[in-house]
Amino acid sequence: MVLGCYFLPIQKRSNWSHPCSPLWQEVEMSGKKTLPKEVIQRGRYIQLIIFGLPLVILPGYELYQRIFNGKERKIQQGEILSDGTLREFSEYEKYEVHKNSWLTRIFGER
């Protein structure tokens, strides 16, 4: 018999749920040590949202800066050779690398 959620000892309370919630009482009554499937699934949805937001916001901000504020796109300035030295590109090579990149093909010259 459950006398009330506030009569539970402190060490039995968990951080994942408030002790008065029906889910908490159901888990306490069943004696299981795992969360219900619905809670795990909802946690995965929240995790996908949290990790997906930066993947949408950061490139969107960069594209906004380019389109509306006139920010120039970064262009590759050189390459690292096999011996570890940096070789600077000439102006023609910079233009060719920029023109042939897949980002330029998708988003255009700007």
Describe the structure.
The chain is mainly alpha-helical and 110 residues long. It has 2 domains: 18-71, no CATH class; 73-110, no CATH class. The chain is 52% helix and 5% strand. It has 4 helices and 2 strands. It has helices spanning 22-30, 37-68, 91-100, 102-107; strands spanning 78-80, 86-88. Strands 1-2 form a two-stranded antiparallel sheet. A hairpin with a 5-residue loop joins strand 1 (78-80) and strand 2. The longest helix has 32 residues, at 37-68. The chain is elongated, with a radius of gyration of 28 Å. The termini are far apart. Mean pLDDT is 78; it is low at 1-13.
Keywords:
single chain, 110 residues, two-stranded antiparallel ribbon, 2 strands, transmembrane helix, transmembrane
Residue windows where pLDDT falls under 50 for at least 5 positions: 1-13
Q: Provide the number of structural domains.
A: 2
Radius of gyration over all CA atoms, rounded: 28 Å
Give the overall silhouette: elongated
> What is the distance, rounded to the nearest whole angstrom, between the alpha carbons of the first and last residues?
69 Å
The count of strands amounts to 2
* Main pleated-sheet profile: 2 strands, antiparallel
